[in-house]
Design a protein that fits this description.
By secondary structure, the chain is mostly loops. It has a domain at about 115-185: Ribosomal Protein L15, Chain: K, domain 2. The protein contains four helices and six strands. Strands 1-3-5 form a three-stranded parallel β-sheet.
Amino acid sequence: MKKKIPEIRKKDEVKAGPKPAVQRKAPAKKKKEVAVSLKWLGIHNLPAVRGANKGKRILGRGPSSGHGKTSTRGSKGQTSRAGRDFYPGFEGGQTPLIRRIPKRGFTSRSKRQFQIVNLKDLSRIKETLINPHVLKENNLIGDKDKLVKILGDGQIKNPLTVQAHAFSRRAAEQIKGTGGKIEVLNA
């Protein structure tokens, strides 16, 4: 018997039979470009991260929704009823702590709150007339329209004319002792 000699195939020839699997590349994902100008980048125009905002639960729309019938409230009981709101401090029906403890005093609606300035702070100001506008410019008070009280902590050497809504006794004595004047503003 004759032996078969294997044929040498050319590179271009294709063997009959199943085609080899083709390696396909996954399509490149397009990156979303957020049109945010760096000049105006701020908290007001940052987009939410994907997955940060969940959709609203749709309730009571049949058993196939997964949120049907009892609408995720369970069966019976206080938590399943309409109009039962569990507020902060709710203790399951027991009298809450805020109702058990005794109450005393009140918060006065006419309480006058002053912005405090000491004499040692006034000694750093170069001007001779000191009023709330000057104190605001020197960052000694937060709001020039609110009440200002001068306290006697520290020393002043130069005579000053100080305009404020209130003065402590020691502050008034020190300002007058250096030859200055105090003027009480009405608010």
